[in-house]
Amino acid sequence: MKEDNFNSTDEGLRSLAIDPDVLKKELAAELQGDPLDDLEVEGFESNSNQALKECELGLTWLQKGHEERLQGLRVFCEHRDPRALTFLIPLLSEPSPVERMSAVYALGRNPSPSAVNILLQLLEEDSNAFVRKAAAWSLGNYSEFPVMEPLIRALHNDVSAVRLWAASSLAEVGSISIEKAESVVSELLLSLRIDQEPLVRSNCIWSLGRLYTNLVGQIKEEVTDGLFQVLLNDIEPSVRYEARIAIEQINNPDVASRLKVLVEKGVLL
Description:
Blueprint: H1 20-31, H2 35-41, H3 48-62, H4 66-78, H5 85-88, H6 97-109, H7 116-125, H8 129-138, H9 148-157, H10 160-174, H11 178-194, H12 198-211, H13 218-233, H14 237-248, H15 253-264
Helix pairs in contact: 3-4, 4-6, 6-8, 7-8, 8-10, 9-10, 9-11, 10-11, 10-12, 11-12, 11-13, 12-14, 13-14
C-alpha cells in the first residue's frame, strides 16, 4: 500500500459518533498517531525473544482498564500472537472509537475467521470513519473470505480515507483468482474514472498494477487503456505520475511502443 496516503484528510466524515475534531485530539493524545502508520513502516518480523516479552505484557494489558488496553492493542498492531484473539475480538464492541479502531488494526495483524463478520459489520455500519478506515485496511488480510462486495461498496460510497484503503485491500482480494481479479479490476477502473479524490485514484492505479499480471485477454487492454487515459487527462500531476509508473512496469512491447510514441510526439516528457 502507498505510504503517501497515510496523512490523507478525513473531510466530510460521515455521521461521526462524536465531533471529528474531538476524536482527532483523542487519537493524538492516546495513540500518538494512527496505528496504520506503524503497520506500514514496520515489518511483521522482529526479534523473537523481545517480541515474546512484549506479547506477554500486551496480553496482561488487554485484560485491564482502558489505558492499559490501548497499550496492549498497540502491541498487537505490531506483533502476531494467537493468544490475543480471545481478548481482541470483544474489543470490537467497545463504546470507545479509539479502542474499536485499534482492535480492528490488531485483527488485521492477527487475522481470525471469528472476526470476519464483525469486521464487515463495522465497515458497513460503524458511525465512526476512523473505525471504517481501519476495517477497510484489515479486511485486505481476509481475502479468502467473502469480503469483495463489501469492499467494493466502500470503494464507491464511503469517505475518501475509507475509499483509498478499500482500493488497496481489493488488490489482495483480486489476487485470489482470475474471476475475482476481473471483478475487482472493473470496479477499480470505474473509480479511477469518477472518484474526485486524487489519493483514491492513485491507490486504484496501485492496485491495478498489482493485479495486471493476473489478468488475461480483453481485460488487460482495458486496464492499459484506462491507465493511458489517466496519464493523458487526469488533472492531478501526482496521479498522472502514478499512471506512468504503472504503464512503464507493464512488460508488453505494444504498451512500451505506445508510450514511446507519446514521448516522441512531445505529448509526454
